[in-house]
Amino acid sequence: MRFPKLSLDKHFFAIAIAIVVFAFVTRVWRVANPPNFYFDEVYHAFTATTFLHNDPKGYEFWQTPPKGVAYEWTHPPLAKLMMAGGMVVFGENSFGWRISSVLAGTGVVAATGWLAHTLYKNKKLTLLAMALVSFDGLLLTMSRIAMNDMHFVFFGLLSLVFYIRFKRTSSPKEAIFAAIMLGLSLASKWTALYIGAVIFVDYFFTLLFSKKIPFMSAALALLAGVVIIPSLYIASYSQFFLQGHTLKQWWDTTQQMWWYHTGLKATHTYQSKPWQWLLDLRPVWMYVDYSQNAKGMLAHIYNIGNPLLLWIGLSIAAVFGIQEGPAFLLRKTKKYEPETLFLLFLYLALWLPWMFSPRIMFFYHYSPSIPILAILTAKAFLSIAKGSLVGKRLVCLLVFLIALIFLVLYPINTALPMPKGYFDTLFSIFPTWK
């Protein structure tokens, strides 16, 4: 029996949708478990419930919180407002406060494909990048917890898509959309400033060395950024102001946020250094369920990434960096790829600043780098497979192994009860995970 051969041109959108559906299902299945707050949900999800009830204490850094939880004022409010929106629809329960992370995390997979396609206009590369990013456990776990990370990553990726489209078309409409998405990303988490810095630097050099963008379009784009981004950021505090808070209190809160992130001296058993993120050495233990311990079963949640994907992605980024960096500096060669160089710059901008951060850091701070690694890896895989049967088989094997590792680690990413031997085996192979 012969199976019909898939045509990439005819079935591109069907395959892309299938990947997005896969990402959604793996993120939403059993997402209501555990039914109570865990890890940083005691801050983010709890504060979202105060937003739901229009309780002003959720915004006030000077308030004393109830025992076991805390008011989360150290990040902008948009992501928590989206969590509150989930509870409006699905009720004040674990599914309600996590569903916005599920949707944003699924959106990250789609946005990764859109960014890849916008940069390279290659359908195979687009689908491969989407598949690879859907097989990462760090993004999976962060898509199943009520925290702000997937929200800011989703909007940040979309801002990059519209920015690239603006560079290609000089359309003010694309610049406006880019500013809107960057504003929403910033209103979810300040780390979006790294994405904004990449856009600003790249735009500066584009205007400096290229005459493709007309003066009026360039001016309108700058105006859109200057007006829209801060406006959306301040607008995310609408509930804060409607509750009667003043501009002075908003400014005091902003100062407290800055002091918190630059002066935090706390320690944590599962904190890590940025160099450890590159090799998936120190994930965060977020939850354990001992209820089936008598049966020899345990359920854990670790935000473990896909080690093979991260190791390969890091190696490929290093190779591309060695190739593209000197070629760009020696501009007369004209052999560098602007798209790949942009991704490398973006990857470094999302990771390198953490090396100098004074505050406590965790593996989930590496989340926005994973989609970039997935695109670079997909590009390299297509180059390896091009014109070589051995190369094609090698790429197929690597993708299969990445998918297999995703499935093997899925239980420890999602609190699926497993025999104790499963965890003992993993921790014996990767002792730094324990």
Description:
The chain has 434 residues and is mostly helical. It is 64% helix and 3% strand. It is built from 18 helices and 3 strands. It has helices spanning 8-28, 44-52, 78-90, 94-120, 123-134, 137-142, 149-169, 172-186, 192-209, 215-235, 238-242, 247-263, 274-278, 307-329, 338-351, 370-385, 389-414, 420-429; strands at 285-289, 297-302, 418-419. A 3-stranded antiparallel β-sheet has the order 1-2-3. The longest helix is centred in the first third of the chain and has 27 residues, at 94-120. The mean pLDDT is 92.
Concise structural overview:
The chain has 434 residues and is mainly α. It contains 18 helices and three strands.
Question: What secondary-structure arrangement, pairings included, does this model have?
Answer:
Elements: H1 8-28, H2 44-52, H3 78-90, H4 94-120, H5 123-134, H6 137-142, H7 149-169, H8 172-186, H9 192-209, H10 215-235, H11 238-242, H12 247-263, H13 274-278, E1 285-289, E2 297-302, H14 307-329, H15 338-351, H16 370-385, H17 389-414, E3 418-419, H18 420-429
Antiparallel strand pairs: 1-2, 2-3
Helix pairs in contact: 1-4, 1-5, 2-3, 3-4, 4-5, 4-7, 4-16, 5-16, 7-8, 7-9, 8-10, 9-15, 14-15, 14-16, 15-16, 16-17
